[in-house]
Amino acid sequence: MKDVVLSIRGLKVYYKTRRGLVKAVDNVDLDVYEGEILGLVGESGCGKTTLGLSIMRLLPSNAIIAGGQILFKGKDILKIPDEEMRMIRGKDISMIFQDPMTSLDPLMKIGDHVIETYLSHMPVKVDEAKGKTMELLEKLGIEKERVDDYPHQFSGGMRQRVVIATAIALHPAVIIADEPTTALDVVTQAQILQTLRRLRDELGSSVILITHNLGIVAQISDRVAVMYAGKIVEVGTVKEIFMDPLHPYTKGLINAVPKVSPEGGELSSIPGSPPDLINPPSGCRFHPRCPYAKEICSREEPSKKIIDGRIVYCHAL
Amino acid sequence: MATTRNKLSPASLYEILKLQHIIRLPRGSEEWYTAIGFIIVMGILLMSILAPWIAPHDPTKIYVGPSLHPPSPEYPMGTDLLGMDMFSRVIWGGRILLLVALISATLSMVVGSFSGLVSGYFGGAVDRLFSIIMDSLYSFPGLILAIAITAMLGPSMMNVVIAISVIYIPTFYRMIRGLVLSIREEPFVEAAKAIGAGHITIMLKYIFPNTIPNMAVVFSLCVADAILTEAGLTFIGLGPVVPPTPDWGLDLYNGWAILISGYWWLIFFPGLFITLTVLGFALIGEGLNEMYNPLLREM
Known about the structure:
The complex is a heterodimer.
Chain A (H helix, E strand, L loop, with lengths): L3 E14 L2 E14 L3 E5 L6 H9 L6 E10 L2 E2 L5 H7 L4 E4 L13 H12 L4 H14 L16 H13 L5 E5 L7 H18 L2 E6 L2 H7 L2 E6 L2 E7 H6 L4 H8 L49 E3 L2 E3 L5
Parallel strand pairs in A: 3-8, 3-9, 6-7, 7-8
Antiparallel strand pairs in A: 1-2, 1-4, 4-5, 9-10, 10-12, 11-12
Chain B lengths: L1 H7 L1 H10 L10 H20 L1 H4 L31 H7 L1 H29 L1 H15 L3 H12 L3 H27 L3 H8 L4 H9 L4 H24 L12 H10 L7 H28 L1 H4 L2
Helix pairs in contact in B: 2-9, 3-14, 6-7, 6-9, 6-12, 7-9, 8-9, 9-12, 10-11, 12-13, 12-14, 13-14
């Protein structure tokens, strides 16, 4: 087994809203190993993005971290001073955002976005940073003559490459990719994913791939963590999760993936809808929708079970 | 992106609209009236800069012609009570006015937008403090506040500049603050934070440039308004100049005193040039506003 680079322990992130506390991430444990691509999947609003943002410490101002630790290189990054955290962002942990259309400043040149990463962390001259930027963009398939173009002159896929360039410029240990391909068409999607995988192989960075697209996860992840209503329900390798899901929710999720076949076929879904995170169901949060629910499920929260090296939270197993 | 910006911009648009009482124009021909505005402003600036060479007479020399001579080929704008050539005085008369208006509008812009940037970006207690100060300044009618400040400090060029800049600081502050509040929520700002950019970098490199188009609009309208305020101050004797310095506001005052006797040319020409200058700046501001704010086009 490889070394753990990032370790999340008992993390609780709540949002203060007028209606009450939204428990977006509740008591989550997760380990990220060196050089792996970890898929983080779940329905919309289950806390995937919140988890990603808490690792960057870029949560919105109404969020509170109610408990837990995020250990990176032996340090709890939830406790270090802001300035120290700023030095980690972009250098050791970086993030690729969802929408390449809006994550570039319309008034800044393509190259300047990437140059900024170098300037923020290294005592380099602008010329030197620009040289590195051109090299990097070239590697990502953008002609270096285009560093002086503006974002509106780029297509979605190319912009996402620029966003990726800003994130990987300093070879961070962990890259959080928050739905990096959602806004792109399938062909561009495949190219971006290939790029991500190639970078992982070359740089040895770990990638946390946040997505609700199981196809993408199956294609490029090594391990998968499934989230439901602010909690992790199951963690395992891609093969385990897709071939032999243990948790009833994972089973439902995999069944719900539409198949590409000319016969069409039944579209299956999980009955019910995700719970309100202000008043989540007692016990196991999935029990109101679970076909295997027992009496204990509504009473007690399932604890972590390790079955053949896989982590799963379920009473039925 | 556009949606968030548009959603929040009414606050800043309000600032602009408030200044628009100066002039309102039909929509759809903004390129034309921006161009006309530029021509007027350029013409007046050139005239003021080149005054020593193009004015036919020394503007402060008395009895270059007969007293109170009506406009004629020799004295195209007539002469005043002391026989000074009005044409030369009008050519010279915009120099101080324009200088004061431009300096004070620039000063307001610098102070107002810097405080707006800090206030909007950091929020919290700083924001509240700045907002209270700016709102209380804003609640005074501009000219009255300027009169109060100049009366307090005494009339001099420096004090008039201070008085006029104070009036327009809140205008810039409120517009920039409103814009910053919406721009700082843009994903590209979050992306900048994610690569480890510091506060100063984010403010100056990511947020500030996005406010420049609106700033140009407000600056232009502020200059127009500042000219009126400055002329107003001079008219009531609190201006930066004393006789016999040529100045449109001062000449307006001098001519007004004896207007009743029918010497119309004494106030017509200085008044016309004040109006033209204000019109020029207002046209530029209005035109730029139309071009940069698609929202206004539908209004």
